[in-house]
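Hi team,

Filling in the usual template for the complex we talked about on Friday. All components are listed, including any nucleic acid strands or ligand strings, so the model treats them as one assembly.

SUBMITTER: L.P.
PURPOSE: interface mapping
COMPONENTS: two
RESIDUES: 770
SEQUENCES:
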Amino acid sequence: MKWRSWAVGAAVAFALPVVASAAPWGYHDPGDLEPNSGQGRVDWMVYAPGMRYPMGNGPSFANSQVYRPGGSQGGGGTQCDAVNYDYPWRDNYCEIRSWDMPLCPAGTGHQGQDIRPATCEKSVHPNVATVDGTITNIGSYSVYLTDPQGRRYDYLHGDTNMVSVGQDVSRGDPINLVSNAFGGTSTTIHLHFNLKQDVAGYGFVYVPPYMSLIQAYEDLMDLGNAPPDGTAAVDACEAITGWAQDPDTPDDPVTVEIWFDGTPDEPTATGVMVLANQYRMDLCDSLGSCEHGFEIDVPLSLRDGYPHVVHAYGTDTEGGGRSELPDSPTFVDCDRPPVPEGVRRPLAGPDHLAAWGFSPFWSSMRLSAEELDGIETGPAVPDTPVVVVDEANVGWLIDGSYRRRIPSQAVADAWGFDLAAAPVWTADELDAYAEGTDLRPEPILVRGPGPVYYLVDDPQCDPNDPACGAPGGSSGGPSSDDGGGGDGTGGGTAGGSAATAGLPEDYGGDDGGCGCRSDARPRQPSAIWALTLLALGRRRRR
Amino acid sequence: MRSMLRPWLRATIAVSIAAGTPFLTACDRGDGSDAQDAAPTGTRAHAQGVASAPRHPRSSDDARTVRRPPVLGGEPMDRAVTGQVAAGEAATVEAARRRYGTDLDRAPAPVLLPPADSPYFGGTLIVRPAFWAYSVAVEPVTVSIQASTKARLHTPLRPKQPEDRVRGVPAWITMNEGIVSIAWIENGIAYTLEVECGEPRKETCRDDALARSIAASLVPVGGKGVTP
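RESULT (copied from the run log):
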């Protein structure tokens, strides 16, 4: 096995003063910190896919500097103890600290990952650029590297800097040497590595680096053996399906990465990760093991009438990084489906999308300016979703002055709503809102040439609004059969009956074309909002 | 937790300084004895070693079929300047114009710099299509400011609101390895400011006061969205 020979080689090469790894490569799960060192974040997301490993070479050892021998909470020993220079790796993002950390379960914690170099020596082992980018700051013990997308990679505690502020660097270029620099004092010999990103809904925050480091390390060290086998194919523009299996561990599921519009090292590419663990009867005989299938949707944003290349990779279960599956790449080449009828409700930007959990990649269509103009504009989507359940356990979305039924758990899932965590509202509380249309089966977003995304939704109206209840009223919504050809609209009464054209067949059947189903009483908007606030204050958890 | 730790931290610092001993050991500025919730044991953790453990990343939710997994690294989304951003006081704007020239015009977001009469004025300004960054070193302090116009949308992450505020808006204020970091969203743009102190024992390096004061003093001097 390749990884075994690598481990032996490392042991010989770093005999002294190196403490070489004795165990085979492996790692604890993300969020599984050293005992009694705090609550980690269980997060398998790779926040910096495709980055290079930040140390020039291996082996190296990601683990806590505080809760291991030689650390202040390590129970004795020295930082050079062999146990610190061995696998498995261990996450220490969110390890106990007093510092605010919005992504840590405790709200505070350690912002990055500590990594020891191959040997317990300072000023020997190089740190290198993880990406092409620019050195944007150098402090007395830190170097910040920023990639063209604005994502930052922080290297702390190094010395012998080989870069300067403003310098452009290429992936793999030397940055400095791993050391123990820490201002006026010193720390253990290690690299403290941060990922800092502009996260929608948060701003510039430290995100978990652990899985990104693991992926980069496996790519660097190439510890695997026989690469995974498998397939990936586009199935009728509805799904991308396939299977993957690692012949060295034939019963284990394989992680598959699917990259659209490029390979992982291309900044324009978009990747997702899925576990090939679905049961497929057809695999049982051919592979000798059945649970190796995977299936994902074809992203709506890529169903645009243009071909998109799709690369599929299997990840070696024994640490060998990614291997492209034999019949990859393939292509998605699908026409855009019809644009749903309705109104378009603006979303204010990334933070607003984050509040709703909307994914433009999975759920958006690109329209021409004419098409977009052909869709009547509706009210802005509320800043955040307010989801409640009634006493019969039916879910409702509070949407402005309307309550809208969430017709099934599947719909709740499609919208990302957690009904189990929703507060229970009484009938009186819910009755303060006019009943609107049922929530659509899934959110569909549209975008014109500009940056603004819109949610395509049912128009809502109060049955007591004279403009609402006139069956057969003037045309308002888009009229075309593809969701809004260039001239299909115009000037209809807002919320008029034509707006129902894109709604389900059972929509509004008892109220004359209005987007409401109830006998909701007239209400003043201010009173409704006051009731909203009151109800929110009174909400209770189940 | 925070309220319990911070007094402890202050006391530790005071005692350590009084004793003339380094109070920083292996990045630790917290209290390891302070019991948080028990650390979770990962479902695939392997206390006995790694022989039987998986060695590869898993999907974030492998217990059920995931047809629309989150985008690796998040979905890139453009931030746009919202509202009116008026240029700040004239002396700083003019000084910045003299020093940085057309870089200001190329900046993709409002450039916020320390006032011209601040010791932290006059650093290096780096402008790229998706961000700008500013760095200045005034011994023993290094100040870094950065603005981003490219957010990453991680759909599993629902927004949180910080409790602190700077510049009239909510802000995350944290300390990272002795580096105070403030992050906020202003006029739709994400900013971060870091203050790193090369001499942790100095008065100005002990808390977030310096970083807060620098953040509060920042002046819009140009860049996209700033009106004269």
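MY TAKE: The two ends of chain A are 53 Å apart (CA to CA). The CA atoms of residues 315 and 322 of chain A lie 5 Å apart.

Thanks, L.
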